[in-house]
Amino acid sequence: MQLEQKDIAILQESENRLRQLSPERLRVAADFLAYLQEREENQVTEELLNIPQKRLRITPSSKGSGFSDTSINHDRILAQSLEVDS
Questions:
Q1: Does residue 70 contact residue 76 with C-beta atoms inside 8 Å?
Q2: In degrees, to the nearest 5, what angle opens at C-alpha 38 toward C-alphas 36 and 44?
Q3: Most distant CA pair in the chain: distance in Å?
Q4: Under 8 Å between Cβ of 67 and 73
Q5: Are 35 and 27 in contact (CB under 8 A)?
Q6: What is the DSSP-derived secondary structure letter of residue 66?
Q7: CB neighbours of 18 closer than 8 A, spacing ≥ 6?
Q8: Mean pLDDT score of the chain, rounded to an integer?
Q9: Structural contact between residues 55 and 48, judged by C-beta atoms closer than 8 angstroms
């Protein structure tokens, strides 16, 4: 993550404030930061889960549109089609 100059200034200010806290308050601040981080991660997860899912729809082809035994004779049919293309 690339930090911008203003972000670096905020980090430095936060660090200065944290250094002035008592150990008890420092623990509270650390817990609060962990809470904020978890909320942000959960928000991202929630956004990903809310992306609409698209289903794959396979429609049958019309009768006689191709080889009916292609899945059985795949290699032979592929070789024949490559010979025609050459």
A1: no
A2: 105
A3: 81
A4: yes
A5: no
A6: S
A7: 26, 29
A8: 81
A9: no
Q: What is the DSSP letter of 54?
A: P
Residue pLDDT, tens place only, 43-82:
888 877 777 777 777 777 666 656 566 666 777 777 877 7
| 58 DSSP 8-state letter | -
Q: What is the DSSP letter of 2?
A: P
Q: How far apart are CA 66 and CA 17, in angstroms?
A: 73
Backbone angles phi, psi at 55, to 5 degrees: -95, 145
C-beta of residue 26 within 8 angstroms of C-beta of residue 18: yes
Write down the pTM of the prediction. 0.48
DSSP 67: -
Place of tokens 């806290």: 21
Give dist(CA 38, CA 30) in Å, integer.
12
* Tokens representing residue 56 in the block: 């794959």
